[in-house]
Amino acid sequence: MANTLLMPKATAVWLVDNTALSFEQIAQFCGLHPLEVKAIADGESAQGIKGMDPIMTGQLTRDEIARAEKDANHRLKLSDPKVRVPESKRKGPRYTPLSKRQDRPNAILWLVRNHPELKDAQIARLVGTTKSTIDQIRDRKHWNSANLQPMDPVTLGLATQIDLDMEVNRASRGREQAQPAGDTLLPAALTERLVPAPEKPKDEDAELDASAVFAKLSALKSKDKEADDEE
């Protein structure tokens, strides 16, 4: 447990307004720079911040403040608080409850089958396991391989969907997209070259030859005349 000052800047505002402590004493107690404390006193900083009384919160005593006001070399000391602020825990392997540890191999099998892009370190991070266990399950050398059933770690409560999606996206980043199997549509640029251009409408007037038409009519008339003469 760590004994730390709550809301240091708000505490500094209160000490500047309500005590005769030096800037150095307030800065040392609140973890600020003396120039920052001076800016608070001049109204150039911490505007809008309401001062917090460290006596009311039990972090300072009136006697301690009075002692520091009389001796400029005295360093303010935090009182032993009734409530301690816990230190941030060091990030380590994910803790898995004992009741869910038996489901962990099933979750590992599911991840290995459904997300082969995940690295062993990512699987270990998701379900709180070791690389050797992952290798045993992947190579079917696990002592209980015959009874393992792939199960979603999110459904089992071993990982959150957000964590799983994040690891999958991280593993997929930079990988080439798989080419679709089977028949696919050709690019538009290619199909334009393959499809023949539509025929232009013929200009009927241009195709008609007047002399040829009259020649045919003359030939028909001559045939009719010959037929009349024979009769």
Could you characterize what this model shows?
It is a single chain. By secondary structure, the chain is an all-alpha fold. The chain is 48% helix and 0% strand. Among the domains are: 8-70, no CATH class; 98-172, no CATH class. It is built from 12 helices and no strands. This is Cytoplasmic protein. It holds the Pfam family TrcR. It comes from Mesorhizobium sanjuanii.
Radius of gyration: 45 Å
Order of helices and strands: HHHHHHHHHHHH
Average pLDDT figure? 77
> Number of DSSP helices?
12
**Total number of β-strand segments?**
0
Poorly predicted regions are none
Ends apart, CA distance between termini: 136 Å
Structural class determined from secondary elements: mainly alpha
What form results from the Cα inertia axes?
A: elongated
Strand content is under 5%
Tell me about the largest β-sheet.
none
* Overall helicity: 40-55%
Q: What would a concise description of this structure say?
A:
This is Cytoplasmic protein. Pfam families: TrcR (PF06242). This protein is mainly α and 231 residues long.
